[in-house]
Amino acid sequence: MKKKSVVANFKSSTKETILISLGGSLVVPDSIDIRFLKKFKQSLQKFLDSKNFIVFVGGGKIARVYQKALAEFGSKDRKKDLIGIVVSKLNAEVVKNIFGKIVHDEIIINPAKTIKTAKKIIVGAGWKPGWSTDYVSVLSAKAHKIKTIINLTNIDYICDKNPKEFPEAKPIKEINWKDFLKIVGNKWSPGLSMPFDPRASKIAQNLKIKVVIINGKNLERFEDFLNDKPFIGTVIQ
Predict the structure, then answer these.
(1) Integer distance in angstroms from the first to the last C-alpha of the chain?
(2) Alpha-carbon separation of residue 209 from 71, 105, 168 (angstroms)
(3) 78 phi and psi, to 5 degrees?
(4) Is pLDDT of 136 > 70?
C-alpha cells in the first residue's frame, strides 16, 4: 500500500502559519553572518504570540561556489544539486540552533512529512536533486494551504531586466505570474540565481500563491509586511 503524505500541523494550532524561503546568501554571504542571524531571531520572536513559522533555508552563494568547482571537473547537474542540498542542510542547522528551545528539533526536508510539535518554529532545507528551496517552499505551502510565501533574499525589488547587465533596469513593486515568468524564463539549473525559481513560479501561479520578495538585509521591511504596513519589496501574484 502506498504511504499517504501528511503535513506539519503545530498540534492543530489556530495561529497563522507564515512560510519563509530564506536565501542562503543571507545566512552565509562569505562567512556565517552572526549579526543577521541575531536580527532574524529577534524579528520572528516579535510575532510568536500570533504566528508560527516554517523557514526553508537555501544553499546560497556557498552552494554555488561548490557547484562551480564540481562543474570544473565535469560533474553533472545531479551531483551539483546534491552538494547544494548538503550546504542547504548546513545552513538550516545554523538557523535552527539560533532559536534554542522554541524550534522543532528536526530539520525538515520532505515538505509533506507530518510534524506534530508544540514548538513555534520549524526549519527545513533542500530535499531532492532538481528541487530548489523555492520549489520545496511552494510544495510546503500547497500542503499547508498557505497562500503567501515570503522570500527573504538580497535584492530590494524584482526588476524588468537584470540590473547587473542593464543599468536602466526598472524596479517592479507588483507583477503577475505571467509577466514574471516572461522575465525569468522557464528553466532551472543548480545554483541558478533568480528572484524566484521559474519552475516553483509555475506551480505558485497554478495554486494562486502570492510570493513577496523582501531584502532580508533590511528586516524592518519584513516586519512591516507582517504588521500590514507599507513595505519595500515586490509582490508577485
Answers:
(1) 38
(2) 34, 28, 30
(3) -60, -45
(4) yes
